[in-house]
Amino acid sequence: MPTAGVEFAKVSYTPAGGPSILREISLSLAAGTTTALLGRSGSGKTTLLRTVNGLVRPTSGEVTVNGQSVTSLSSSEELVVLRRGIGYVIQETGLFPHMTIERNAGFGLELADRPKAEIAARAREVLQQSGLDYDALRERFPWQLSGGQRQRVGLARALALAPPVLLMDEPFGALDPLTRSEMQAMFKSMQQQLHKTVLLVTHDLGEALFLADRVVIIDSGEVVADLHSAEVFESENLHVKDYVSAVRHLFAK
Fold first, then answer.
1. In angstroms, rounded to a whole number, what is the distance separating the alpha carbons of residues 68 and 70?
2. What is the rounded average pLDDT of the residues 103-122?
């Protein structure tokens, strides 16, 4: 049986004074695989993803990353160590506008007090790995790049510490269709080489099927479908059929 890279055991989350966002979610994500989380806006996808790196603390249940319980960590120092082993890519990239591309890419290493030579070498490596011309772009600032280039820098930064786990929250959602397709192809090729444990939040079924080994649909904080991506179009699950119908509707004449 594949080793679990990330595991959710009856994870629930109810913010103080608010309704439940997650309801007893149990999932086991095999190490080295990509899992796509789909669902309507407000279904709980991003909240679940953020329990993995401790940005959201479950009300009950347990989250485990590579055998280590996230929910049992209590100190900020323990969370820092955890997060160094988890890459995090978001739609807006979160790049520091006052830092060069090179420094943005290597900032995690800088925080980890790695030697300058190591930081420089690793920044070059991950920027090139993400499809960027290091020599041409290293001294530029985020505002001098296109949206696709900024997203590549965000991905490079997430990979700099060589984390075994990668969280991706709508990473390509703000890009134009052609750039988005290029980024998807680049990431798929990269994942085939790196074999990270990837949790991808997306609204796009096509993106999920292209990038992920497994598709999980969340509705109102609960898992309503969990299947291999190759099974999606043949599934009789009503939630899956709704997604498939919506995609086919786009191409209907």
1. 6
2. 92
